[in-house]
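pls design
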């Protein structure tokens, strides 16, 4: 194939650039994986405080009791899942994804009750 006469193909406008959110995720995961023990400790404290704030806001709200208790259940489960993932020393990707899920859910609960 040294003396091939084929024209090299260029892929104009087909190269997909990663979104900024995906790059942020990759960078944060790399940092989390690199210093897993320290970040896990800090994340347990921060995520537990955020989950407690979400639980407080839920209990102070004026929504239906069944919905309130269901949301409180999920806030508690997500917080406990992350704490359990750290204690069980699961893979960094699993632990990091559970952390993101827990933080996002607690934040959404807080924002939904503030609006």
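designed seq:
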């Amino acid at each position: 194939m040294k003396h091939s006469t084929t024209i090299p193909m260029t892929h104009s406008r087909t190269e997909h650039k990663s979104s900024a959110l995906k790059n942020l995720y990759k960078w944060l995961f790399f940092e989390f994986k690199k210093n897993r023990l320290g970040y896990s400790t800090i994340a347990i404290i921060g995520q537990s405080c955020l989950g407690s704030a979400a639980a407080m806001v839920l209990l102070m709200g004026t929504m239906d009791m069944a919905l309130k208790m269901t949301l409180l259940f999920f806030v508690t489960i997500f917080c406990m899942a992350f704490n359990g993932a750290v204690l069980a020393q699961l893979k960094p990707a699993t632990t990091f994804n559970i952390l993101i899920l827990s933080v996002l859910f607690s934040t959404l609960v807080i924002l939904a009750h503030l609006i």
